[in-house]
């Protein structure tokens, strides 16, 4: 799935640090990015509900 995100300032401004103009979505909660410890997936405290809540646009577009 690809998402086309509109940006301003000739791609110099991003609306969200996890959304890229080439359609990529960075999901640090799933350990696809080296984020801060509190942003990363923790098998003891994390849930799939957190994924749905933190990235609703990803699932609405699909």
Descriptive notes:
With 62 residues, the protein is mainly alpha-helical. It has one domain (1-62). 21% of the residues lie in helices and 0% in strands. It has two helices and no strands. The longest helix has 7 residues, at 48-54. It is elongated. The N and C termini lie close together (7 Å). The model has no long low-confidence stretch (mean pLDDT 64).
- Helix/strand-derived category reads mainly alpha
Give helix and strand order, one letter per element, not per position. Answer: HH
Number of helices: 2
Low-confidence stretches are none
GO cellular component, one term: nucleus
Keywords: Transferase, Ubl conjugation pathway
Organism: Diaphorina citri (Asian citrus psyllid)
Domain UBC core: 1-62
Describe the protein's topology:
Blueprint: H1 48-54, H2 56-61
Observed structural traits:
21% helix; mainly alpha; single chain; 0% strand; 62 residues
Summarize this entry quickly.
The protein has helices at 48-54, 56-61. It is mainly α and 62 residues long. The longest helix has 7 residues, at 48-54.
């Amino acid at each position: 799935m690809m998402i086309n995100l509109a940006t301003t300032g000739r791609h110099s401004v991003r609306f969200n640090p996890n959304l890229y103009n080439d359609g990529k979505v960075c999901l640090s909660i799933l350990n696809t990015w080296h984020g801060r410890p509190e942003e990363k997936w923790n098998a003891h405290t994390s849930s799939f509900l957190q994924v749905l809540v933190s990235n609703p646009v990803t699932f609405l577009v699909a």
